[in-house]
Amino acid sequence: MGETMSVEQFLEDAAAVGVKTGALSGGFIARDTYLNIVKNYPAADYVGKQAFATDLGSQGRGAPVVSNGLNWRRLFSQADYAGVLKHLIIGGSGATYTQTGTTVTVTWTSHGLSAYEFNGASVYLVQNTGYLLSEWFTNFTYVDANTFTVTSAISQSTSGVLGTNTAETDIPVGFTFPSTPGFVEVGDLLSFSGLIRNKNSVNTKTAKLYIGANLVASSTLTTSNNWVSVGSPNIMSIGSGNYILVGGIGIQITPINTTAKATIQLSNATDWAAFIFNRASVATSS
Predict the structure, then answer these.
(1) In Å, what is the CA distance from 263 to each residue of 42, 43, 111, 260?
(2) Which one, of 251, 219, 220, 222, lies nearest residue 234 by Cα?
(3) pLDDT digits (tens, 9 = 90+) for 62-90
(4) Which of 14, 49, 71, 253 has the most CB atoms in a 10 Å sphere around its CB?
(5) Dist. CA 248–CA 233, nearest whole Å
(6) What is the DSSP letter of 3?
(7) Angstrom distance (rounded) from CA 286 to CA 278
(8) Nearest residue to 194 via CA among 203, 204, 206, 207
(9) For the whole model, what pTM was predicted?
């Protein structure tokens, strides 16, 4: 009989020939949050080893990380935020509303919004008369060419006229890069992107992307009713949690300003525009 091979030796040999051993317990040294991996598994002790960070990756799927001897790094570039929810800003000119319970019914003649494209979206409404709150509402539902409903966070009975909105309005989604050592390092590239879609009219509608208070990207002042990409320049880390735009104008961003956000603005209150904050991602350099 030949010499018995230990489980450890089998897993090492299997990994050497490219066999995926995660399901056999040897693929990742741990499955935990990124912070716990950094805390409980010193990178210096696990050079070249992989762990699975359950809180990284797009839409909560998790992502593998590898130790380079100094920090735990993601194994490859991956989006940390990938948006699926559309957010609608409506100009509100001439629109009325009625709220019963949590359901708000908006009448806006020839609104141009479709069930196929916008059912389920969030919508920002501004109140002029009545007791409707000026805020983001959920669950856009197409009723007909002149009517749609949304859901309010509070229940009440009221009705009135919507106010007009041509102000730059924050989209209620964003992403903050963690400050955990190793998450972003010198040489990494950060990027942000989104999509804007709007009513077909001659008036401009603009989406903007910010990191902290710094404007890093703006959509073309589009009058098209197609989805248009909005993307930032690449941003390269210069160490100690500070970033500088590559190919930009040298905006420096401090560690307290690592949150990406988006805004949208209409130039005319007869229009609407929709935005998807698509992703904030890191391309790792080591």
Answers:
(1) 40, 39, 21, 11
(2) 251
(3) 888 888 888 888 876 555 555 667 899 99
(4) 253
(5) 7
(6) P
(7) 25
(8) 207
(9) 0.70
Measure the CA–CA gap between 203 and 78, rounded to whole angstroms.
36
User: How big, in percent rounded to 5, are the helix, strand and coil portions of the chain?
Assistant: 10, 45, 45
* 253 neighbors 243 (Cβ within 8 angstroms): yes
- List the strands of the sheet with 31-32, edge to edge: 31-32, 50-53, 63-67, 72-74
Ranges of each domain in the chain: 7-76, 94-161, 167-283
User: For 167-283, CATH number?
Assistant: 2.60.120
- The two structure tokens encoding residue 267: 């130039």
> What are the tens digits of pLDDT across the range 160-175?
999 999 999 998 876 6
One-character DSSP codes across 67-124: E-SSSEEESS-EEEEE----EEEE--TT-EEEEEEEEEEEE-TT----HHHHTT-EEE
Give the containing element (helix H, strand E) for 35.
helix 34-40
Q: Which residue has the tokens 């909005």?
A: 230
